[in-house]
């Protein structure tokens, strides 16, 4: 299907998923964290019926998840331009029957999706606290995507907990230096961390991302820490990451 593009937009493809996505160097382009999160999310073929992609940006995570589940996916994005990009990418991939795009604040999520009805929430949130002294990108779109300007960690976790069924799951990608904040927020909203996986740029380098799975009203403790994902082998992607990106180890 053909869609209209703005002058600053292009169409990229995640070859491993066969998904095309509208991107913009001036507005938003997905990063590896979106690919890692979509790969980390676990769904069950018959039990997973409703998925929500929070802080959806241009829709990368939700679009990538569409290849691994038949569940309905609702993307929620507060920035109108990004939500429009996501909507047009849904049309581009002929996924209108499976994916809906909501352009609104996460605080209003329950106006579109009933509480306690969702099986999986995935979220690639803004990573950085919005301190007055924080150095932010002068590009407003990118500043909102990276800093907690329109939402914050507690609001995100609270919204996710409100939508999820009992024993349903939240999957997030985050920064290791805020992992303590994340775990405290999860437990304060009845979400028990159950699986954690660090991502390191190279074997001998510190982790720069962490993937976390939590269960609503799950039993305390029992956290499993998976082996680390290594992004690069020298200057090239590792075979594991190549498979996520291209579907092969090329």
TrEMBL record:
It holds the Pfam family MTS. GO terms for molecular function: N-methyltransferase activity; nucleic acid binding; S-adenosylmethionine-dependent methyltransferase activity. PROSITE patterns: N6_MTASE. One of its GO terms (biological process) is methylation. Gene3D superfamilies: Vaccinia Virus protein VP39. Residues 35-149 form the Methyltransferase small domain. This is Methyltransferase small domain-containing protein. The lineage of its organism: Bacteria, Bacillati, Bacillota, Bacilli, Lactobacillales.
